[in-house]
Specification:
Strand order of the largest sheet: 16-17-15-19-18
Structural class: alpha+beta
Largest sheet: 5 strands, antiparallel
Radius of gyration: 27 Å
InterPro entries: Nucleotide-bd_a/b_plait_sf, RBD_domain_sf, RBM45_RRM1, RBM45_RRM2, RBM45_RRM3, RBM45_RRM4, RRM_dom, SLIRP/GR-RBP-like
Protein name: RNA-binding protein 45
Shape: elongated
CATH class of one domain: Alpha Beta
GO molecular function, one term: RNA binding
Pfam family, one: RRM_1
Keywords: RNA-binding
Length: 571
DNA sequence: CGACGGGACGC
DNA sequence: CGACGGGACGC
């Protein structure tokens, strides 16, 4: 299922060479086996082709005119029936860049073009092989990036870099269950595909971003209802469209699909949902009713509640969905509110900002307030392994995750400093307060009310006198000095190294080569590096004897590519 | 002696 | 409901 990674070459340098291919560009296929041209070009770059369900009368020129404002359209293909030549109401549009396709989808989905009445349904095209099959969490594939992160990098730092491309749903770094050390990769999830695409194309290449495979869905206790849950196939779930007649006989008499276009206001619903529901879950629910065209979920800033706009292709479906789902408890304890969307008018696309009109902001009597008060409790819950449930999304959870990480950082700084948090709860190494100071680790094997030191932690800590903790340098800082570090017999844990080497200021990154006893520290300032050498060379840290010296320059930048690349054609 | 990292989400 | 064609000498 791999999304094609365009380029697997890596220099380990943060500044990628000017002539190297980036995620935004396309490959040259001229030398490639023709049999693979087609497959390859559709996914290059990944998710850059649109699948559009549309009225049958729209022409290629109509599409070009409507879509070329979002980027470079390399192909428009209006699908026609092989035998009859009749348009099938399906069109593919290929863009040169993923972000162009993303923007076009966000802007054009639900819109009409020309004077063709039927609104377009615009989706990112699947691979030919996947076809129309839907996947369990597939919207994640468009919103979430898989990234490689330096082991010393914290979630705050990761967020800091990726916030420049758009609003972040969450970031997470995967950590070892027991040691809580970073495993060197993580995820960044956005709310909008165009933001994820921008990050995919423009983030620092050392992150090696990929659109993440959707996470297998956690079971979402959906008992108490006949819903077989997201992923269950449509229509077989107790909804019986055929047996349903909408309240208004007039509406019901309209032809379902292709006849006169439905007034959009009658095919669009406004939904208020629990803050815990994400767009995917909402989609799965409403998709139980055939005829769902799209859902646009937004969140009310104050209440955190989901405000969704749900578009159906016909009045019957919309009316049926409203009737069956209004008041439905989903998830249990949270009633959905489903109405026809009175605020909708033709000028307003699904993605134009749609502040919920006051009359639609219901007070939900059944809904508990979004647990504000207990900040500390919330953070603890977020850190505790028991905090299951769906992935956090939305500002509240994001804030909690943020807070949890800050606390985890402070805790491990205290650990690294060898201070008993009970004895010196105020004095700890709060130096990481700017978000840069902390190791990625959580509090290690922790029990409520006390911190248990990791097994391999040597309480003698460090033989040298250490300065106070310092903030780290920005990840994209220019490297002023690189140090080579050797640890005998074994290296201290990463969070200790980061804390100790960070105390001389301006530390960008430090890592131990995997399976080895040596590694590198990068400083943004030469003086800091020199102080580190003076203070730490020959000293002992966690029972390891340290050698700390300037690193030999990285000679022979072998990118790992033997292939002759023809990017030297200057003229 | 010791030289250039890390890749799929909780067992 | 709504998922895959036609054309092609370019490098």
């Amino acid at each position: 299922m791999a999304d094609s990674r365009g380029d697997s070459s890596s220099t380990g340098s943060y500044r990628s060479g000017g002539s190297r291919r980036t995620n935004g560009d396309m490959r040259d296929y001229s030398g490639m086996d023709p049999r693979y041209h087609k497959e390859a070009k559709y996914s290059d770059p990944p998710n850059s082709r649109l699948f559009i369900v549309c009225g049958k009368s729209i022409t290629e020129d109509d599409f070009r005119e409507a879509f070329s404002k979002y980027g470079t359209v390399s192909e428009v293909w209006v699908v026609k029936d092989r035998a009859t030549g009749e348009p099938k109401g399906v069109t593919y549009i290929k863009f040169n860049k993923t972000s162009e396709a993303a923007l076009a989808m966000e802007e054009m989905n639900g819109r009409c073009i020309g004077n063709h009445p039927r609104p377009l349904k615009v989706l990112i095209a699947h691979s030919r092989e996947q076809g129309s099959r839907r996947e369990q969490n597939e919207e994640e594939r468009l919103l979430r990036l898989f990234v490689v992160v330096p082991r010393a990098m914290t979630e705050s730092e990761l967020r800091e870099h990726f916030i420049t491309f758009g609003d972040i749903d969450y970031v997470s770094i995967v950590k070892d269950r027991t040691t809580k050390e970073s495993k060197g990769f993580g995820y960044v999830k956005y709310h909008r595909m165009s933001h994820a695409a921008k990050a995919y194309e423009n983030c620092d290449r050392s992150f090696k971003p990929m659109f993440a495979d959707p996470k297998p869905v956690r079971d979402m206790r959906n008992d108490g209802m006949m819903l077989s849950g997201p992923g269950s196939s449509v229509s077989s779930s107790g909804f019986d469209m055929a047996a349903y007649t909408p309240p208004s006989g007039k509406m019901g008499s309209l032809p379902p699909m292709e006849g006169a276009p439905p007034a959009e206001a009658c095919t669009r619903l406004a939904v208020v949902a629990s803050p815990t529901l994400n767009q995917d879950q909402l989609w799965k629910l409403f998709d139980l009713v055939p005829g769902l065209d799209f859902i646009d979920l937004r969140r009310d800033r104050k209440s955190g509640q989901g405000i969704a706009s749900v578009q159906f292709s016909n009045i019957q479906s919309a009316a049926y969905a409203k009737e069956k789902l209004h008041g439905f408890e989903y998830p249990p304890g949270h009633r959905l509110i489903v109405k026809f969307d009175p605020s909708h008018d033709m000028m307003m696309g699904p993605h134009s900002l749609m502040p919920p009109p006051p009359n639609m902001m219901p007070r939900m009597p059944m809904m508990p307030p979004p647990a504000p008060g207990g900040v500390g409790n919330g953070a603890a819950a977020a850190m505790s392994p028991g905090g299951a449930g769906p992935r956090p999304s939305g500002s509240l959870q994001t804030d909690l995750a943020h807070l949890a990480e800050t606390i985890a950082q402070a805790t491990s700084l205290i650990q690294a400093a060898g201070i008993n948090p009970h004895a010196a709860s105020g004095g700890g190494g709060g130096g990481g307060a700017d978000g840069g100071g902390g190791p990625p680790a959580g509090p290690g094997p922790a029990v409520p009310g006390g911190v248990v030191m990791p097994e391999h932690y040597d309480p003698t800590y460090c033989s040298a006198r250490l300065p106070a903790p310092q903030p780290l340098a920005a990840l994209d800082s220019t490297v002023a000095e690189r140090l080579f570090i050797v640890c005998h017999p074994a290296p201290p844990p990463p969070y200790t190294l980061k804390d100790v080497f960070g105390r001389f200021g301006n530390l960008i990154d430090i890592y131990i080569l995997s399976g080895k006893t040596c590694g590198y520290a990068k400083y943004a300032c030469k003086e800091s590096a020199e102080k580190a050498i003076q203070t730490l060379h020959g000293q002992e840290l966690c029972g390891a004897r340290l050698k700390v010296m300037p690193a030999e320059p990285q000679d022979k930048v072998d990118t790992g590519r033997k292939r002759i690349k023809i990017d030297d054609q200057q003229f």
